[in-house]
Amino acid sequence: MTSDPKRLHPAAILFFLYKDLKNWIVPAIIFVVAVYNQSKLWSILGLFALLLLITAVDIIRYRTFSYQFFDDEILVRSGIFVKKVNHIPYDRIQNITANQWFFLRPFKLEELEIETAGHSEGPEVSLVAVPVKLKDELNHYRQQFNSEEVTQNVSQETFSMEKPIKQGITEYSITWRELLKFSLTSPAFLSGLLVVLAFYGKVQQSLSKQFYEAAANEFVHLGWILVVIGLIIILLFFYLISVLVLIAKYYHFHLEKEDSQFRMQYGFFKAKKTSISQNRIQAVVVKQTLLRRMLHIASVKLVIISNSKKGETEKDIVVMPVIETAKLNDFLKKFFPHIPVDELKVKPAAAKTYYYDLRNAMIFSVITDIVLGSIMFKLSVWWLVAIVIVSALFWLPPAYLNARRARITLMNDDYVFLQNNQVTSKNSYFVPKSSIQLLERRQSVWLSNKKFAHILLNCRSGIETRVLKVKYLPQEQIDEVVAWYKKGANS
Q1: CA 364 from centre of chain
Q2: How does the average pLDDT of the chain come out, rounded?
Q3: Dihedral of CA 292/298/302/303: which sign?
Q4: In CATH, what is the architecture of 12-160?
Q5: 3-state SS assignment for residue 92
């Protein structure tokens, strides 16, 4: 059965326009800042011409875009000057994500992102502004194709076998209390500041000397106290915005698991529906920042095989953004019953692990003191004291956390538990043996004499390799893990 060629909804023009304007906003601002003082008319005409050109291109792009369902594939035609025809076989589709902005809901439209096993920079196809029922139609074609493949390739004896019993639907939703804790403890507001600084770096050359002189005069008149208050207000503004953004992003986060499929639905302004097959999961990660650990909450993420480098697939997939630690074990048993959580027995870090990490931190701290202190000592002794204190706070606490959280232990014949630290974030990995592509033990001559070593586990993450590392562990612990891994490789 073949469908007729279909076009996107006219609202797709707005999507194309939004993405293009987002790409052109910085060059447009630089152009206005550079030209406005010399000629206001040319700056306005230039912006109008750019907007007109982008709109015309997007209308043509909409008119030249179409998609069509066949029995074994979906065909997508696009391109203005270079015509593209994208063939996507149903058996190559790994994931279909539905994104629905709030202004599309009354019209029952959404965006479909189709991800395949190909190694591209993003989803192979993005169908913007299509009917909500299109996802069900696409899944119907996929199921029909898969059933035909099974009929052709599976012998008659297979059908006489007893069908596997399907598991019921397992569900979990985050509470408002958990979502507020998660949003209020996020350092995401710092990203907003970095964006502003990056934008300033791009436009600073276009700013005139008069602008800097006027800013300096205002700075002198206001005084230090008002400037500090202004900076605090700016930080609070970015913090409040980041809290609201996270609440809107993970609004009504709901997780379902049926058989081997995980389905997630969340979002206020942009409702997102996505599914992940269990066979793509390489490891389960429990992540806790220092502040969230004090509040007894954590995030659960998945290291998965993916083809996309963009968006969330560049990082670990968030399968549960926030959960109270008291509920964590029950959650893992419920959604990942193959992980032997009850068999986990973690040994405390060795005393020499603390010694090596803190020793290295002290060395870096002293080097920092010497380099910066030689410069600041000429200004004031108090600057030198401040550098020593700041340097110690910068190097020593993370080193202590690195040692305290350096763990690796075998759970059973199939799973290993690995824990490490990243700045102040505690990362706990549950890794199946089948996901480990390479296991490496590193040991210098000096560590060999002390019977200590490092261990590295390589597993797939996205289209690349994730290296999980734990440093300064007793050699006997690492040898035990190596023997466990070799046993599976040789069997």
Answers
A1: 30
A2: 83
A3: positive
A4: Roll (2.30)
A5: helix
